[in-house]
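STRUCTURE:
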């Protein structure tokens, strides 16, 4: 019996050595893979989940394209919370902090997040040595670090946030923007923001808490950002309603579909149209980004 045990032990050791010597498997992805986040609603505006890949049709520049990546489950995202700190936000500060934390707590616990505060200039809320976090306590400290005063450099803040998203460890990217005005101080432009968002595929969700007498209020701007990137824009009458909207947006993001297809390599902008059909739900509406910038062609293909 001892001899058999020794032989068996030797075999196990040999198997363990062989296993250790095997290379770690790698997952290969297409360099030019274009990813699209999509929310599907029915005729009554209710979110539709549980659809399969075959329910979707993808058109790029009006031509049907194959969908090579499809995920319908709740998968983690990288999310930036962009908060207006201009002087006019003072009476809304506590509601906005509570709403941003509702968004964080309702989101997937594996999401990685960061915070950008802005007035005349943008600044990151997390410590310099932390790019992203899933820690609610860290996020609460970051969200609460208001520095009220100054003007509204919204475009500059979005460019900073989109740049941080370029470092994301997840393929799905989201920005939540809470502001009470349009832009009146940025060096960057709306075209700069739209270009950056289309390049990294981020979906922009905006909440505009506008005062009726504010000359800088600009609801069409936030709507354009949402429509171009597949996000959403809401305009509550009271700052107390922002928490409810943040909760709904977080749940919507968790119910999105993630699709991917091989992109072009010509450095040009291409339109995207995604549609879905399902006999059990009637007419469906798909909310997704409307286009993408293709990668530049390789040098040997020029």
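SEQUENCE:
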């Amino acid at each position: 019996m001892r001899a058999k045990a020794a032989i068996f032990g030797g075999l196990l050791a040999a198997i363990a050595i062989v296993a250790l010597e095997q290379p770690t498997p790698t997952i290969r992805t297409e360099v030019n893979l274009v990813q699209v986040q999509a929310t599907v609603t029915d005729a009554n505006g209710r979110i539709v989940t549980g659809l399969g890949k075959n329910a979707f049709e993808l058109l790029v520049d009006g031509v049907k394209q194959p969908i090579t990546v499809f995920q319908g489950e709740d998968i983690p995202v990288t999310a930036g919370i962009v908060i207006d700190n201009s002087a006019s936000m003072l009476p809304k500060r506590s509601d906005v902090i509570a709403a941003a934390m509702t968004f964080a707590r309702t989101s997937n616990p594996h999401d990685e997040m960061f915070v950008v505060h802005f007035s005349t200039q943008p600044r990151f809320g997390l410590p310099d040595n932390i790019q992203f976090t899933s820690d609610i306590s860290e996020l609460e400290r970051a969200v609460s670090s208001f520095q009220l005063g100054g003007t509204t450099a919204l475009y500059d803040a979005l460019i900073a946030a989109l740049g941080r998203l370029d470092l994301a460890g997840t393929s799905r990217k989201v920005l939540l923007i809470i502001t009470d005005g349009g832009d009146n101080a940025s060096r960057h432009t709306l075209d700069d923001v739209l270009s950056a968002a289309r390049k990294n595929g981020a979906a922009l969700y905006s909440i505009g808490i506008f005062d009726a007498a504010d000359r800088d209020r600009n609801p069409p701007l936030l709507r354009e950002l949402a429509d171009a990137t597949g996000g959403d824009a809401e305009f509550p009458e009271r700052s107390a309603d922002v928490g409810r909207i943040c909760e709904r947006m977080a749940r919507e993001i968790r119910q999105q579909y993630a699709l991917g297809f091989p992109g072009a390599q010509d450095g040009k902008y291409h339109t995207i149209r995604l549609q879905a059909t399902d006999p059990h739900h009637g007419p469906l509406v798909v909310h997704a980004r409307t286009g993408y910038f293709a990668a530049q062609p390789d040098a040997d293909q020029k």
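REMARK: The chain has seven helices and 14 strands.
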